[in-house]
Amino acid sequence: MIIEPRMRGFICVTSHPDGCAQSVKNQIEYIKSKGTIDGAKKVLVIGASTGFGLSSRITAAFGSDAATIGVFFEKPPLEGKPGSPGWYNSAAFETEANKAGLYAKSVNGDAFSNEIKRQTLDLIKADLGQVDLVIYSLASPVRLHPVTGVLHRSVLKPIGATYTNKTVDFHTGVVTDISIAPCQDDDIANTVAVMGGEDWAMWMDALKAENLLAPGVKTVAYSYIGPSLTEAVYRKGTIGRAKDHLEATAFSISDSLKSVDGEAFVSVNKALVTQASSAIPVIPLYISLLYKIMKEEGIHEGCIEQIQRLYQDRLYTGNPIPTDEKGRIRVDDWEMRDDVQEKVATLWKQATTESLPEIGDLEGYRKDFLNLFGFDFAGVDYKADTDEMVGIPSIV
Ligand code: NAD
Ligand code: NA
User: Fold this and answer.
1) pLDDT truncated to tens, each residue of the chain (396 aa)?
2) Domain for residue 372, yes or no?
3) 38 part of a folded domain
4) Which positions in this protein are listed as binding NAD(+) (predicted)?
């Protein structure tokens, strides 16, 4: 079929298999161009099909020749209906890994469930014995709690007071003021249940209980901080409480991993265009200004550049892992540079529908957004008929 982008609200409901494959190949080429990383050899990535998790899998495989198991929740294609981008990304990743002689298998289903944990543990036991790196990179709006059976929904709201600021509809370029009402009742607890650290700890407990963690194992989950501009809706909002919980969980996991000489870390990453961040008001305007400045300064990074730097310059240098005063790894250091943030703050005041195309990187935002779904890649013939029924070679 011929597949074109089809938007519904903030999301794109189609995706392109060849474009997703191109995106994976581009990331692999980038990793190969940066040389070998003396990293982990048997890697479990939870949330491995898109965004930071996909880049983490690619960096392990093509930077360190690692065997990888990827866990994700993606939609397979149906005749005439493309699968989700993470499906096609994972198909392309496994194909390229196999070509390179690297072990790669995937588990598709709800990572919060006992069943998917069980299947993943069995696969590690059968094929790898133990893992020496576990990346935890889930981003989900809901979690069905495996013990209580409660379905928790996360919300992206300020706490305590209505927050009003500028935002942009990046599809139309229109800048408006929006107000977001504060969260209520159980919103904080629900958001913490979905995006906090409980599930990460459950994974690590289950892996440890069955002796599937190699001596010296590392585990890393991803967090975000961002500037004061977005604080009310992000770091001091409901999602920020979940990130506080995730960051605190790193310490309790580290305690539990002492017996295997292991350690847990949170890495604070840069703001990037993803399906999730596009749905948070205010963030797209921030990102479009940030991209403009970081590109001008020559310090712009996407997921693959961020994760390559995380592995090469933070996790696997052979020296102690550098962290901030709260024990977190920081690869958002370039985003948070004073000069960068001062420029964003200045441009923020000037941003209007008329000025944004000049002072912000709306084009870059839109391109990155389309790229998430496999569209707008050089080297892909979007007018050609393509096979939507692409399968993942080793899927459980
Ligand atoms: P993403 O949406 O690109 O990736 C999410 C992954 O989780 C996908 O592989 C998806 O299949 C998987 N997933 C979702 N629900 C699942 C479920 N129930 N079971 C199994 N797999 C499931 O998100 P991302 O932007 O790469 O975010 C990953 C982490 O990085 C999050 O913790 C996020 O907060 C953090 N982070 C994001 C940004 C940003 O700007 N995007 C910045 C810093 C940190
Ligand atoms: Na991810």
Assistant:
1) 999 999 988 789 999 999 999 999 999 999 999 999 999 999 999 999 999 999 999 999 999 999 999 999 999 999 999 999 999 999 999 999 999 999 999 999 999 999 999 999 999 999 999 999 999 999 999 999 999 999 999 999 999 999 999 999 999 999 999 999 999 989 999 999 999 999 999 999 999 999 999 999 999 999 999 999 999 999 999 999 999 999 999 999 999 999 999 999 999 999 999 888 888 889 999 999 999 999 999 999 999 999 999 999 999 999 999 999 999 999 999 999 999 999 999 999 999 999 999 999 999 999 999 999 999 999 999 999 999 999 999 998
2) no
3) yes
4) 47-52, 73-74, 110-111, 138-139, 243, 272-274
> Does residue 123 belong to any structural domain of this protein?
yes
Residues with a CB atom less than 6 Å from ligand 1: 47-53, 71-74, 86, 110-112, 137-140, 222-224, 269, 271-272, 274-277
Q: Report the chain's terminal Cα–Cα distance, integer Å.
A: 27
Least Cα distance to 389 among 3, 75, 80 occurs for 80
Domain that holds residue 199: 7-142+187-280+299-333
**Residue 118 falls within a domain, yes or no?**
yes
- Residue whose Cα lies nearest atom 6 of ligand 1: it is 47
> Can you name the residues that pair with 133 across neighbouring β-strands?
43, 218
Domain total for the chain?
A: 1
Is 234 among the residues known to form the active site? yes
Among 12, 50, 291, which residue has the most ligand 1 atoms within 8 Å of its CB, making it the best to mutate?
50
By three-state DSSP, how is residue 366 classified? helix
What ipTM was estimated for this complex?
Answer: 0.98
- Tell me how crowded residue 114 is: count the other CB atoms within 10 A of its CB: 12
**Residue 7: what are its φ and ψ, rounded to 5°?**
-90, 140
CATH number at residue 73: 3.40.50.720
